[in-house]
């Protein structure tokens, strides 16, 4: 999950080379590396990428080369474009809504890590055959500014009440994972009546931003009382802003689960290194880096959570729908909002 508020400006995928890539003397770096396609925030200066690469190299001897491809959709698109001659070993950051598209693209091969069943609970497994392996997870949520003039809503339906007119920031489901997550959430709760819900909700929407960063920035600037994000956004504010002003809301009807996964590229140039990377990403040594950099829960249940997570509410009910269902709802939702 992205958390520092910033805008990505990548037009093409950018490569972050390991620090050893420019070392002098004879080297077999090409055979002792793993190439990971991922999204911008994972490999950014405040993300977990650098520390994970360092620890992975210390344990295995492999260096990590990150290729930044904007968002998770771009990660998949680049792999598809290179399908006949793969350059990547790992795709990292494929969200649950891209699972069907990833499988149909045929760019990954199943890999069952020996660490998987020991540490990852079955309810967050992304695929039965382990085409994708989860490394972090969380819940989509409505974030509430306790200093606003409206009461905290208690359900998705509450958001449609007149008192919340122009109070909610959402993200475009075509360009934002939280945007698509919220669309999926409404579909999971309302089923075939989801479009009627969106018609009721439309007056409450202040704006639909292109990205999570832009939308959440409006919320924290005091422009809106409510915003779509993750329950663990609350942990970030506790850790870095030293405040519990921004509260994550969990609803009785349940919250949509958010999953991020990784997979081994089919015909990867460095297959053994790719499998070693998956194995390492599930260890405590890698997983302990994630909570306060990704601002998500680690997939490894043995990893203790930092203090900032202790007051983050946990939904009593987890909701899921397929990526195909979620994508199918998008165009109709957009047409309602653009009227």
Automatic annotation (TrEMBL):
Keyword set, alphabetical order: Periplasm, Signal, Transport
Alphabetical list of CDD domains matching this protein: PBP2_TbpA
InterPro entries the UniProt entry points to: ThiB-like
Protein's organism: Treponema vincentii F0403
GO terms, molecular function: thiamine binding; thiamine pyrophosphate binding
Main location: periplasm
SUPFAM superfamilies: Periplasmic binding protein-like II
Entry's localization field: Periplasm
Signal peptide segment: 1-23
NCBIfam families found in the cross-reference section: sfuA
Organism phylogeny: Bacteria, Pseudomonadati, Spirochaetota, Spirochaetia, Spirochaetales
Pfam families with a match to the protein in the record: SBP_bac_6
Keyword Transport on entry: yes
Protein's UniProt keywords contain Transcription: no
Name of the protein in question: ABC transporter periplasmic binding protein, thiB subfamily
